[in-house]
Design a protein that fits this description.
By secondary structure, this protein is of the alpha/beta class. It has six helices and five strands; from the N terminus they run βααβααβααββ. It has a single domain, classed as Rossmann fold.
């Protein structure tokens, strides 16, 4: 099964109709949901970030609907970051000035799981060796 990380920026863009990347976010999330794109992995840190944003901006109902969609969707995976990722994430956070700690944890997860691709609108990931950021609904495995 082909998998790629799904960054909070993409799911937020999907949920927020006012987001400048709403159309692209919608294409990506729907592509993952339909199985046309690789399965989307949403780490616990990204899930927390996106649900807090959607809750604050769009309310409880939209946040819980989004959570249900991610939990129930056959092509979404919501793993819990192992404690070991915090040490790797801390090193990455120190090494790459543009990465937030949450982004560094996502990179640590990707490295631990041998994931090469991340759907994201955050160009800070571009600085990280071994990771390819995808900002369109393209499937890198076909």
């Amino acid at each position: 099964m082909a998998r790629a990380l799904l960054d909070a920026t993409v799911v937020i863009a999907f949920a927020d109709t006012d987001d400048q990347d709403h159309e692209l976010g919608t294409e990506i999330v729907r592509g993952v949901d339909a199985g046309d794109l690789p399965d989307g992995v949403v780490t616990n840190g990204a899930l927390l970030e996106l649900l807090n944003f959607v809750h604050d901006r769009n309310g409880q109902a939209m946040a819980t609907d989004l959570l249900d969609r991610l939990i129930e969707g056959a092509h979404f995976h919501l793993p819990y970051d192992p404690k070991e990722n915090y040490g790797v994430g801390r090193s990455l956070f120190r090494r790459y000035e543009g990465l937030s700690f949450g982004d560094a944890l996502q990179v640590a997860y990707m490295q631990g799981e041998d994931l090469d691709y991340i759907y994201s609108f955050d160009c800070d990931f571009d600085a990280v060796d071994g990771i390819t950021r995808l900002a369109t609904a393209d499937n890198p495995f076909v």
